[in-house]
Amino acid sequence: MAQSKTILLVASGDLRQSANEKTWPIQQAMEKQLTAAVAQFGYRLVRAHPFKPDVAHGFISSQKEGMAIFAGLDPKAPLIVAEAVWQYSHHVLAGLKSHRGPILTVANWSGTAPGLVGMLNLNGSLTKAGVKYSTLWSADFTDDFFLKNLAGWLKTGVVRHAASHVRPLAKARVPAKARAIARQVAADLRRRKSIMGVFDEGCMGMFNAIIPDELLFSTGVYKERLSQSALYYGATQVSDQEARGVYNWLRAKGMKFHLGTNEDTDLTRRRCSGSARPTSPLCASPTSSAARRSASSTSRGSRTSCPPPTSSRACSTTPTDRPLPMPAARSSATACRSRTSTRWTSAPASTAC
After folding, report:
1. Quick one: 34 exposed, middle or buried, by C-beta within 10 A (0-12, 13-18, 19+)?
2. CA distance 36 to 350
3. What is the pLDDT of residues 70-80, one digit of tens each?
4. Tens digit of each residue's pLDDT (9 = 90 or more) over 114-169
5. What string of DSSP letters covers 175-235?
6. How far apart (Å, rounded) are the C-alpha atoms in residues 121 and 91?
7. Residue 350 to residues 231, 256, 319: CA-CA distances in angstroms?
8. pLDDT in tens, 3-59
9. Hey, how many other C-beta atoms are within 10 angstroms of the C-beta on 115?
10. What is the mean pLDDT of residues 258-265?
11. What are phi and psi of 210, to 5 degrees?
12. Which one in 38, 81, 134, 344 has a CA-CA gap of 20 to 30 Å to 177?
């Protein structure tokens, strides 16, 4: 580690102003705790970018802003990326890719703020980009696990976690029946091929979620990049009755909705109806129905025009078990020939399974 006792801190945030403004107090509290923890070992944690009074937060909120900030930093300085909220990784990925000093990603462990989720997304992007980094997390940054490893990073620039539970897949004992089934599925995919429908690949800066096409090709899976604008248009054509049908189907399947009345903070019946609308065109689209697996991501574009599909977080569907019967005008014979279930997922676009 460098002789300097100064550690730089950066904080990637959301792209949405409302989210950054609302969650800034959570980030402030986390940075205060982290600063105190670093100070215990004789180091000073300094923000590499200031609070912005005009927008009422101190997050890096765009890729361009992140590039400008990193351009002015010492590329060899030890750096902590502190995340207490959900963040868009591309805001800081470019700067971290070229940074040569020790990097530590740190997140809070909280049930009310998804800092850990944001950090893991960033970690995945850094790993994919070939960036060396260490990572830590804590509920309040006072526990022995965190402090011991923080002290180690401050001295050496590296944190090594126990990984004795990780073993090469090639050495794993797979039951003969499971191995035979896997080989059969793999051979079938290579012979007959499969389409993976993708909406908004790399949404929210998720570089880690983009599966290189050339790697998929060898498995027999090929992408079909679908249009979110077409999905939005299809959602506007769904009737209230159809939308209620999706909601009722989910309830019949056992999904529980904890509804409230505050449209700003609660899940309401109106929101459920709105988020059910994209489900019908998803199921009935000739293109997406041809896909044996399709991904509907919670992305920047769709989340500002319509809510993500209700069923996307809840269900797997097959041609005979769908939230709605497929209307003739939007049906596709291809869907009836689908050989596997399709799962609508709000996970990063190209990680649907």
Report:
1. buried
2. 40
3. 999 999 999 99
4. 899 999 999 999 999 999 999 999 999 999 999 999 999 999 999 999 999 998 98
5. -HHHHHHHHHHHHHHHHH-EEEEEESTTGGG-GGG---HHHHHTTTEEEEEE-HHHHHHHH
6. 12
7. 17, 28, 22
8. 679 999 999 999 999 999 999 999 999 999 999 999 999 999 999 999 999 999 999
9. 24
10. 88
11. -90, 110
12. 344
DSSP states along 125-140: HHHHHT---EEEEESS
Alpha helices in 40-98 (DSSP H): 63-71, 90-98
Q: What is the DSSP string of 95-163?
A: HHHH--S-EEEEEE--SSS-HHHHHHHHHHHHHHHT---EEEEESSS-SHHHHHHHHHHHHHS------
Distance CA 74, CA 268 (A): 48
CA–CA dist 345, 351 (Å, integer)? 9
Q: Do the beta carbons of residue 58 and residue 24 sit within 8 Å?
A: yes
Residue 288 and residue 330 in contact, taking contact as beta carbons nearer than 8 Å: no
**Element holding 296 (H helix, E strand):** none
- Find tokens 């091929």 and name the residue: 193
Tell me the residue length of the chain. 353
Among residues 131, 145, 78, 138, the alpha carbon closest in space to that of 110 is found at 138
Higher pLDDT, 342 or 219: 219
Distance, in Å, from the CA atom of 91 to the CA atom of 297, rounded to the nearest integer, reads 19
- What letter does residue 307 receive in the DSSP assignment? P
Between strands 103-108 and 79-83, the pairing is parallel
The C-alpha atoms of residue 27 and residue 83 are separated, in whole angstroms, by 7
